[in-house]
Design a protein that fits this description.
Layout lengths: L16 H11 L5 H5 L7 H10 L6 H15 L6 H8 L3 H5 L5 H24 L6 H18 L1 H9 L5 H26 L9 H13 L1 H4 L8 H14 L4
Helix pairs in contact: 4-7, 4-9, 7-8, 7-9, 7-10, 8-9, 8-10, 8-11, 8-13, 10-11
């Protein structure tokens, strides 16, 4: 929220903008009083330079997170230092610390967006009304594929965490919670007769997730098949097979 402007203080002992400018002029013999007090045009080169000096780093927060996530995926989180992230992004470490406090916070921001998106998608499809459990399960799988593609690097990073820190253990727990929601749908679909009962719910859930998660290994931006078509293919293969 922008800070509200307040009138300049006129109490005794306060320094007015004009006197401050004159003081600067006195401190710098090369600056004339007129130069010190004259306003700088908003579009001038000098104004642009001033904004550049006091402006924020070259990446905004969201772009920084996206770029850092790509670096973590390509180099591995544990083997990537903040120096490496800064070098890969072409900015200084201080520019990164302008937005985050630590590499661990950057990891948290990187993976939490994928977690939130996946959890929300599965939750939404699980709670749809007037559908069978099998239909809700199919929609949940389809939505998971689309989310995985949209948040490709974030989900890839999520799937690679191994619980080496409290943050990573929290991420693993979040993954288990998503798994549990899908497994509950599988169990309901079996109970309704929509899925065969000779395979356990745990096995079916793992096979479904194995197929969906494998997309992180081969999908790259620019892949010549759109996300919806990929989601349709995965859902068809998972629930109907490949027979024509």
């Amino acid at each position: 929220m922008p800070e509200s402007s307040s009138p300049a203080s006129t109490s005794p002992g306060s320094t007015s903008p004009t006197s401050a400018s004159n003081a600067s002029a006195a401190a710098d013999p090369s600056t004339t009083p007129a130069e010190a007090t004259a306003p700088t045009p908003a579009g001038s080169a000098e104004a642009t330079a001033k904004r550049s000096r006091r402006g924020r780093p070259g990446y905004d927060r969201e772009t920084l997170i996206n770029k850092a996530t790509e670096v973590f995926v390509s180099r591995g989180y544990d083997g990537t230092s903040m120096d490496t992230v800064a070098r890969e992004l072409g900015i200084t470490k201080s520019a990164i610390y302008h937005h985050v406090k630590s590499k661990e916070e950057l990891l948290h921001l990187a993976i939490s967006r994928g977690i939130r998106a996946l959890d929300s998608a599965v939750e939404t499809e699980s709670l749809r009304e007037n559908l069978t459990a099998l239909e809700r399960l199919q929609l949940a799988v389809r939505a998971s594929v689309v989310i995985l593609i949209e948040y490709h690097h974030s989900v890839t990073l999520l799937l690679r965490v191994r619980g080496n820190s409290p943050l990573e253990r929290d991420a693993l727990e979040a993954r288990r919670n998503i798994d549990a929601k899908v497994r509950a749908l599988v169990e309901s679909a079996i109970a309704e007769g929509g899925l065969r009962s000779d395979f356990t719910p745990g096995l079916i859930t793992r096979l479904l997730f194995g197929m969906v998660n494998s997309i992180t290994e081969w999908y790259r931006p620019g892949y010549p098949v759109d996300p919806d078509t990929i989601a349709e293919a995965v859902t068809t293969m998972a629930f109907q097979g490949l027979e024509s």
